[in-house]
Amino acid sequence: MAVIIRKLDNKEHEYFTYVKSLCGHRTYFLYFQDDIWESAVPHTFIEILRSFLNSSKVTVTLTEKDFTLKNDALLELLKT
Known about the structure:
Layout: E1 2-7, E2 14-20, E3 27-33, H1 41-52, E4 59-62, H2 72-79
């Protein structure tokens, strides 16, 4: 299972983490900020998906390429 972490474009300390399912039909994603309150969120997300997808091997990659949203309303929806 390959977990990708990408910084949001033009945002400080905001990220998307996502995993594509093995068959490629689904993508599971998570929005989080890198502050003290949300530090465990990506780990918990990965553990839940590892268990759900029954995957023993996990690779986590922090990419250099930023993630750009076409609609900021989507980000506001995810923050609530």
